[in-house]
């Protein structure tokens, strides 16, 4: 952008209803004044009364997996394991080359995934299918031979799923790097200026290798890299490249709802099974203490209510704040603990309409405290929205619409008492404050509508006129 800066003309400032011109210079907002400011050589974007907001933040995404998922066979419509095998059989496959599918939802299927189904559908073809929540990997026999494993069903969950996902054949690094950078450009086109990358990899090294992304990136630290990260002298918040900073440490407390491995206080229906605790507290606390001592923040994955209780117990024992990622099912007594302990609830509102049927079945009688965003907000918790892409699309407006409406189809909102106001949902997607102020950073999004009072049904398709990152246009319609 030229040296004279940027002028965003005739915009509505957040939810204030105030129309103004906004000047940006040197990466900061330098003026918010009544319309009619002179251009003075600045690049001008005509807002036509559209809403100007701080740049949107996706606080939880898996960028390599999202970029790859955009090129996988979609399986979200599969009604059974047999149906999923039929769908993948109709895809274009290159003999001997790994065929990948994504986004299947097995929680309510009448049958179970099995390698035999894939072997019959595509004999001899290596096939890898990823569940929508990324906690289940379903392989054909030929795909298992690719990674030198054997298994009676070819279905791997939790730690085995994560480890095998990392070893599957991939395109060249040059190709996947290009895919990931294209994904950040697509995110910028939806108003995103910051993404926390929760990829299970050496995110710092990967991002330092790539060209400059179209968004800021928080490089989250995988558990297996904690000691190395500390030894490299890296601390959460440290800059590690252009638009790159070190993120928190990601630790799994439990699994997921759809895999039925979310760790709960109560049993799953018709069983004595209550999910999987992946990190017992007595084993976890020394790891967390080491991270805190090394300047690494904490992000604990917890989906079931018992896992959330234990995650909050960990923060209380440590005497530090941090993040709980997902917080999908909560015990009533844990709601006020988030605010009291200074723990952010990093939630993904688009999961709620996706998982409402699974929750009604597997968490029957408890869904009044599932995806309980209004209750968390009312208890004083800080909410920060993410997509968990590729579990949901990397589009904050999808999550905002779900948080406000509690639905994404023709059905009424699910537990509408847990819906948030639009202003609260937008604030949870903009780092906590939906207002643009003079002197603030010039990470901004200009929406092509005045969103005040906009019906939830229109939020998912909002036009984005411009996205500004550090004063530079990363997207312009």
What would you say this structure looks like, in words?
This protein is of the alpha/beta class and about 475 residues long. The protein folds into three domains: about 100 residues, Urease, subunit C, domain 1 (Roll); about 270 residues, TIM Barrel; about 100 residues, Diaminopimelate Epimerase, Chain A, domain 1, CATH 3.10.310.70. The chain is about 30% helix and about 25% strand. It contains 15 helices and 22 strands. Strands 6, 12, 13, 14, 15, 16, 17, 18 and 19 form a nine-stranded mixed beta sheet that branches. Strands 1, 2, 3, 4, 5, 20, 21 and 22 form an eight-stranded mixed beta sheet that branches. A hairpin with a 2-residue loop joins strand 14 and strand 15. Helix 1 packs across helix 6 and helix 9 crosses helix 10.
